[in-house]
């Protein structure tokens, strides 16, 4: 029902999480006790489950987990992935992560997750994902959680900006209750992120890392790019209302600056010695600002 609803009502790509091991399954525990020299659990539980999942639900992304206790040869990962990419109903579109055995993370997979909350802070050569949680302490729902245990929307947008600038994808996890409800604080974070992306998604979706990931002159600025445009994601509004950038090489005659969500050109000049840019942030009423938490400057015709 979930797969049908998502495909019928949204343009979201449908993917599924799947754990290779079942913590307390007696067949798995028996294989484990045998040093993983037997594969009774694989033959009777795991492989039938994986093939059924793909054939029935046709996920475009398989987020594998629970791999760390045994090598890929025990899990049968090579055989399953060979079928998935060559003969399965999603063979032409499917993407998988790197959790297919204790020797696979950050080495094999369409998208590297490496570790939970992986955030290298520098450009990576391989496509990667930052799988993190809105609740700092848990992937699931906690009745005892306190307000300070949850990331603020500003912290989440900062995480998104850094991740995408370095070529990664952000997986923002919220934990439902036992009966499937998303509690209000998680709803708030999700809707806040959605509101921000409605205005600034141009700098995120289908973007690519630029030649520079973050600004060194002014803290809290991350860059992305698309076609011939560079986006500067500004996480803190400058107190002086003036923003200094050293990374972009601007042309006084052709470079244009705008803010996503505002229909106006923004004034700028070259920095000292003709290096960098000094940008005058728009002086508009607070109610007219396109975002409450972070702002994106669109830089056209820069190098």
Protein described:
This protein folds into two domains: 203 residues, Glycosidases (TIM Barrel, Alpha-Beta Barrel), CATH 3.20.20.80; 93 residues, Immunoglobulin-like (Sandwich). It has seven helices and twelve strands. The strands form four sheets. It has a four-stranded antiparallel beta sheet. Strands 1-2-3 form a three-stranded parallel beta sheet, with no helix packed on it. Helix 2 packs across helix 3. The chain starts with a helix and ends with a strand. 28% of the residues are buried. The model has no long low-confidence stretch (mean pLDDT 97).
Question: What is the secondary structure topology, with strand pairs?
Answer:
Elements: H1 2-9, E1 15-19, H2 26-33, H3 40-57, E2 61-65, H4 72-75, H5 77-86, E3 95-96, E4 128-133, H6 153-165, E5 168-173, H7 184-200, E6 221-226, E7 229-234, E8 242-245, E9 256-259, E10 268-270, E11 277-280, E12 295-300
Parallel strand pairs: 1-2, 2-3, 4-5
Antiparallel strand pairs: 6-7, 7-12, 8-11, 9-12, 10-11
Helix pairs in contact: 2-3
